[in-house]
Structures
1.
Amino acid sequence: MAHVDQSRAHDKRRLLQAFGLTSSYLIVEVIGGLWTNSLALLADAGHMLTDVCGLLLALVAITLAARPATVTRTYGYYRVEILAAVANAVLLLGVSAYILYEAYERLVDPPAVTSGVMLIVAVIGLVVNLIGMRLMQEGVDRSLNVKGAYLELLSDTISSVGVIIAAIVMWTTGWYYADPLLSAGIGLFILPRTWSLLRDAIAILMEGTPPHLDLNDVRASLEALDGVLAVHDLHAWSITSGVPALSCHVVRKADADAADVMRRAHECVRTRYGIDHATIQVEGPDWAEAETHA
């Protein structure tokens, strides 16, 4: 897993940079939201807060994941990253619910908003979010932990654009309903993305088959190898994001060499499916009628 550790070290540097940038701007946005009386700006600050918390969780998780395995935690701490992704998703859901509630309250009686200052703060926030997204983009496909942080930054980027539009509308027309309406839109925007993150993280915790793997295809590939009679007890799961694992029993033909069958089976799952961590048990043909589970 050396290449995984190297990737995580790179991700950690990017996370640190994004955390410093985002946490610094959070203070500015909270002050701006209170000063201008803008729920949209405070909603954006709420998302920024989840960014800061999410990035902090991601940093803690990626640091713990680098710790070596022990006799009591034989896979090390890789799963901490997935727990952090779940925590990020729950946090985002809570913030979204609060924003939607507050937006409803303000639709009943929309207060005046200092839209000029709101516009300036929102533009700065947009720039900060774009920089943060650029830092996180590289690690999105290989880590749910980084993906969680990236999605939070993405939602903030979209909400910053919305805040800018709402500020311009209020500045030019005085229509203050734009503030709670935009805030509700921000809250609704992140719900499907948050659900996607939560679903993927729970799938890993439940040791579901990695989405890029078709076990029927894996089975067919193994059974097509010379000397293989059958494959049973085939299971695949993810240790953490981008680290698939597999175990199975391969029944060899009577005239096949067990060591050769094992070597080719490992080579098959590694080269065709990218699975470096595989546990393959080779059995004699007399095992073909044994009880199987998959």
Note: Residues 215-287 form a domain with the Alpha-Beta Plaits fold (CATH 3.30.70.1350).
2.
Amino acid sequence: MEICCNAKLNLSLDITGRRNDGYHYVDTVMQSVDLFDTLYIDSAEEDGIELRSNLPFLPVDERNLVCRAAHLLAEAGGVTRRGVKAYIEKRIPVGAGLAGGSANAAGTLLALRELWGLDIDDAELSALGLKLGADVPFCLSGGTARATGTGELLTPLKPFPRCLFVIAMPDTGVVTKEAFQLLDAKHGYERPDTEALVAAIGAGDARAAAKRFVNVFETSGTCGAGDLTRKMLSLGAMGAALTGSGSAVFSLFESHLEAEACRLELIKEYRAWTARPVERGIYVKPRIIYLK
């Protein structure tokens, strides 16, 4: 099977509380975009999960969410033979706040449910995904949605208007756990007006939505994304903000020419991509694939 695992953007991100177990409550609007990893999965005769990747530094053991997702699904579905070969072709940058690992986990859950013929519905699959990470439930469905709780309570929204996002990040990524620890010590920072953002998306007004792109990891000074955000705005973006806990920043353009001009300017200092909003998080393509 071939699975396209799309990245996500946090068009806005607010942290509304913290549980005793350390998990945080969020209120965020998320958007799938067509920057994606490709995950290839095949059954194998020998038991176990054999994972490879085009990135030599990427963990291919239990530290990788693909392996953890496969084991978790096998336990939930009572699968005794767990022979799986998988290969990740990474395009989504690591440590960017773009949910690359979560998207890979979601793709693994969907593909193996089908490959193993498991009677597990979408709600059960989402609950399993939440055990792997707060972004996994959204990545399973994707599109445009508001997420609350710890990320598992999803309210689908109207598709985001046609546009182009420019995504850029410095050479270094962010460790999410450390970013949350820094944010917990901050007070008095700007918070997003999520209701106004949702209303703008519902009205199909991309320009109004762009003015509501706010991320508390950025406004609290937890990350150093301010220079990159200002650079994007100076290059004509309608709005720009950090995604997730960073380190990637995204900006919005209506014109392809303006977006490409921005990207070409940014690649002088950063890694940069253009991406369009899409209405699904995962695309599973059944194919005859033999992984050797």
Note: The CA atoms of residues 25 and 149 lie 5 Å apart.
3.
Amino acid sequence: MVIRNKTLILVPLVAAAVLGSVSALAAGRAGFGEGMHYDNRFSHNQYYHDRGYSVPGIPRGAYEIRHGGQSYWYHGGEWYRHDGRFSVVIGAPIGAFVPVLPPYYSTVWWGGVPYYYADDSYYVWDAPANQYQVVDPPAGIESGGTTTTPSSDKVFIYPKNGQSQEQQAQDKYECHRFGVEQSGFDPTLAGGGVSADVAATKRSDYQRAEAACLEGRGYTVR
């Protein structure tokens, strides 16, 4: 009789535990859980763990990033510092390089330059390093940055080889830099950074060099 009572008592406890797990799983699938926040800046609209949130071990599939003599872990757009048996969420270390952008990011244009935004962090493509670098947000981007390509720099490219959005952004930025180097004209600067009497010619030189670079990388340019 005692055994039966103990069994009956255990059943609702087990049921409650199962229901709690199901609820937690449902919350996770919905994108929101304990210790998380919603980032809607620049229409980013993604959930991330709060700074200081800790997880056991090291997130599976995380990249180890060495910077400033320390090891950091980079996963899903979040940054971690390993502390004993746990990894603690931190802000992205300024100056660190990463091989890939976060799986979800917003391209934010400022001064004609694309910045890649995710979880209160900004990245720019660094051609010499062939990686993306974490940078401080330039003054004014928070209020004046736009996710729309500036009309003065707008070039419509159509990938012929199935290039990803990430690859397209990288190629476009590198070809922009190539056009600047070849022509001396930089559309991100006032007046292109050249005197008014040669601006029209230099701009045409820039556009031809940029288009030639993109076409050479497998794009149709309009």
Note: Residues 1-31 have pLDDT under 50 and may be disordered.
4.
Amino acid sequence: MIRTSARGLAAAALLVAAAPAAAQTERTLDLETRPGVVMRVLVASPAQPPRAAVILLAGGHGNLALAPDGRIGWGGGNQLVRTRLDYARAGFLVATPDMAADLKDGASVKPGIRWSEAHARDLGALVRHLRGTVAKVHLVGTSRAALSATNAAARLAGTEAPDAVVVTAGMMVHVDDRQPSAERNVAGLGSVRQPFLLVHHAQDGCRWTPASGVPRAAALLSGARSVDIRILTGGTPGSGDPCEAMSPHGFVGLDREVVDLVAAWLNARD
């Protein structure tokens, strides 16, 4: 079951006004991912036929609370969400999914969802759907969405498996029991076979995503076809919680650099 609606992107376009528009409209897609379960997705298309698609997974609890007209109830400032049109301008078909309806718990989500089989199946259904338009589909997850991306890559196969995985500022390694990590919660990280890119900021001040943990994260992906690491510096100092999007953890002041880096790496996989 698929339902779509379209809306203008005047407000969102203000974020990228310095560059030519790549997507005239962004539509909402209601995709049945499991029997009787619907996941709402924002879909933006580039100006030219895309060569590949990216699925952008927001951090935090991941419940974007997407309205039928595409309005974002939570997470609009998340680094991947706020740059989604930049990925369209870079030539990708862009899908930004909410959590499936049955995984939500009010304004948040049910415990353990990011490393669940159900969540992986939802992302697999979206990968399969996008393959109706493009040959290659990639997962990009930031912060806590590292668990979603690695869980899906470890569980999915065939036409539902992503072609490559990118994690930015990811909660990959165990730091303490107050936050989840891919290392402790995702089974079979060594079974991930896709090319993998880890992007981090050297000044990330979030205690659960230290730049010092990136080599350990790479070692966990022992079965990946390749594991590449990019450590960024610079941007702006940011403000507020060091684990939130307006800090080095969210690459504040480096949005274009992150998009260009990820796009170039993914295009090199073609």
Note: DSSP finds eight helices and eleven strands in the chain.
